TrEMBL record:
Cofactor note: Binds 1 Mg(2+) ion per trimer.
Species of provenance: Clostridium paridis
InterPro entries for the chain: PTS_IIA_lac/cel (IPR003188), PTS_IIA_lac/cel_sf (IPR036542)
Gene3D superfamilies: Phosphotransferase system, lactose/cellobiose-type IIA subunit (1.20.58.80)
Cofactor(s) recorded in Swiss-Prot or TrEMBL: Mg(2+)
Protein name, UniProt field: PTS lactose/cellobiose transporter subunit IIA
Domain of life: Bacteria
A single MF term (Gene Ontology): metal ion binding
One Gene Ontology biological process: phosphoenolpyruvate-dependent sugar phosphotransferase system
Modified residues (Phosphohistidine): 76
Active-site feature positions: 76
Annotated Pfam families: PTS_IIA
Amino acid sequence: MDPMELIAFNIISNVGMAKSLAVEALREVRGGNKELAAEKLKEADGYMVEAHHSHAELIQKEASGEKVEFSLILMHAEDQMLSAETIKELVKEMIEMYNDLKENK
């Protein structure tokens, strides 16, 4: 596997974990476990940071003049990264809404 594929798969793996943890956090809140939900969101943030580091590595290569080949795998990695970030932020908002609803009952 070439270095570009490794970076792309690193991104895909990390954002996949982040998405899963965000959804798990939402389920934990619905089950009444706010503390575990917060831990899962924090862990998801860590995976997103790792993915962003890998992505930044590619951007730095291109900015320094190194040719970064376009590939379907890299496009998929970036798509997954964007969707993971969106899902994570939406889950945070949903948790806040859920908590507000529970408080107002």
